[in-house]
Amino acid sequence: MKIKLTALALLSSLACLADEIPGRAPVEPKSLPAPDQPVEPVAPSVTKLDDGRMKVGAVTFDPKTRAVEFPARINMTDGLLEFLVVHQNGKVHESLFVTDISATDLNIALKLLRYKASRELYLKVNKDGSLSSVFEEASDEEKRESRLSIFVRHGEGEAAKETNVCDWIHHAVTEKPMPHEPWVYGGSFFYEGKFVAETSGDIFAVFLSNAALGNYAGKDNQDDTVWLVRPRVVPPEGTSVQLVIRPYQP
Description:
Number of helices: 4
Largest sheet: 8 strands, mixed, barrel
Structural class: alpha+beta
Order of helices and strands: EHEEEEEEHEEHEEEEEEHEEEE
Mean pLDDT: 85
Helix content: 10-25%
Number of domains: 1
């Protein structure tokens, strides 16, 4: 069964949590390759699967457990990271995973599962465009309902394993794995009528990005020189995996 979302309803839903933000210093979208000819926007359809889960595009989600899954590939086996996952036409030179899913589809799934976007990780922007020293505000509910854990499922059949993605990343100085702190769903935003997570390809960021759908909330998330891939742990480049998002459990 397909649940059709009209373009008007979809845009209204997205705008509730990702409006154009007055005063925000814009992130210049590095647009993904555009089609040769203009096309009319088509609202995605949400399909109900036989097992009770739902699907939008290549993103599958479960209303009961609030888990979200989507396919990705290993993009790096060593080196510095700024992103956990980006679109395959995005900033692939600094991301652990790449995917071909639509950031808009993933955003729809998160909203339908009642996750709340929180902007608490972002500094407010002054009128002259510079960053202030004050963080944006978020309600207790937004903080509570924005927190996620992200896992990677790899392997086939009985050999399949599911690992917290933090275990595949380590700190350049301490050499310890990334702590299992939450990832915070920030919702990205619209700029000049475009959804920036879609146009930039930024999906989840290790180094803080207000363009991304979500960011790592742990220490050193504003330092782009400290988080590295754990080379002896990560499978070979190109390995297909499933990324799984669940509510954060402290």
